[in-house]
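Ticket opened by: R.M.
Priority: normal
Category: complex prediction / small molecule

The reporter submitted a protein together with zinc ion and asked that the result be attached to this ticket for the collaborator who will pick it up next week. Submitted input follows.
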Amino acid sequence: MTETFGNFLYSKSIFLSFPIMFIVLLSVTPNSLGQETLKNNNSCKCVVFRMDDIQDYWLQAGQLTPMDLFMSKNQSLSLGLIMNDIGNDSKVTGKIQDGVQQGLFELALHGWDHIDYTELSEEEQEDSLHKANEKMQKLFGTTSDIFFPPLFNFDDATLKAMNDLRLRILSSSASTEYDFNQNRSVFSLDEKNDGSNMNQTIYHLPATSFFKNYNETAVIAKNPIEKILADVTQNIAKYGYSVILFHPQDFMKLDENGNFTNVVEEKEVQDLSRLIDSVLSNNISITSFSKIVGIENGTNLSSFNAGTATGMFTNNNNINSNAYPVSDSCLPFRTPRSEDYITLGASDHIDLKELKGLNCSLAQIYNMYGKYLYEKASTLGISPSDAAATIFVESSGLGFGPDGRMIIRFESCVFYEQWGKKESLEFSNHFECGRQNDKFRTSPTHEFTEYHGNHSKEWRVFEFARNLDEEAAIKSISMGLGQIMGFNADKAGYTSAEEMFNNMSHSLKSQIDGFFSALSYNKDNKDKSCMDNLKTNNYVGFAACYNAYGQDEAYASRIKESANAYKEVTAGRLYAGS
Ligand SMILES: [Zn+2]
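Result attached by the on-call engineer:
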């Protein structure tokens, strides 16, 4: 898992790197502001909208319409997926993917099957949730740390199973929590702040308001928006947050027998829309479960979504997974840009033979560009160990592919923004904007195929795009070690994307410089840059500067651990880390 570092090459595909940091660097994230509020007021004055029963080919419009609504309002929505029943209905999965990529949808397990989990043994519950997360990973490239028990029921075995699987958030219902232990486990932001809740491994954040109520005889009772708002306010006063639950069926017309039809009841959608607007106009923000408790949802960091609604940053750093072999032994990284490494690397190479894990990876950094990092660090006013650790944890670590060309990632969606909008027919003849699943074809008579994750394919698509519009194409790629987007050239110290491309294409030094320039970039010349935190050895502050997911401590400790490893392997050497 993420704790074992095979070697340097392997590590880059594990660590979520530059993109996430970059988002936060260059745009003020609502989340990091949200975190601030939490710390100050013991309340986030926020609400989570949760939609359950997401599955294939079932009341499709009832699932898609609310998803569209939240996306059109640019608001967060948490989805409970029935994992055994999802994966074939591409309209549903495609929509979910879109929302995830835009950073709006939070995914939760709503069971493997939609059954009462308390009727399963602890082992069965654990197997079932494990299976659910495996499929989640396969379908959406990320696991979930959140469980919405079907029918709300859970027991001690559920909590044990969740604990074994490191699922952190349980969202049942307020009445189920009451039945469980008179709400004693319900998470409150007060507890979080006075520290008494620190040992709680699973956070209980039950649904407290319902768009519609369903009782056993399936009679549906609609809750007036005013009542929901009053409940929300009351729950915020009590717990610091509130959770509103709705279902796809809430929006469907019924036939004369009281069965759901496939037709959307527009009035209900309008009511949901009005509810969202009312919440916001009462200065209550809409957030996700993981943001309330301050954890990152999902454990697969490498695939963790980093795309933004505006399509600004590259969203995946698994760039070389096909280009480089993964090996367990500490083998020297063979680079085609040897001249670069002769000037950048330390002359007193560390012998890699006996090294393992972190030490192996950081020794590679010393050998490849340790001398330059030593000089760079002194210019930046940070320690060489911190410089090395930052590159290791936050960048891909590699600048060039085996063929000597710079590592790039061509973002079809950005190319659409830059060029395709004006040339939509030509664009759609060759490109499909799908973020992780961007596709390309040379001619309209060919089939579209995916190209991410393959160095030579990325270049083929990029070269094709360059023939259509050189400038737009260069703006649409992320480049080199730090994977900085072309249109962000100014943040990396360049006056144009072309200039950045020309420099970085031939020089690892330029890539390293660009990476640190971006880290030093100060959005409005008011706040500190991320780099300022490193200067004072404030690792947590540094991590918080880019990390929008409440993982500051974890990232900080990775950087610290890597810095220590660098110190250890370089001790007594020419350009030793301090
Ligand atoms: Zn359900």
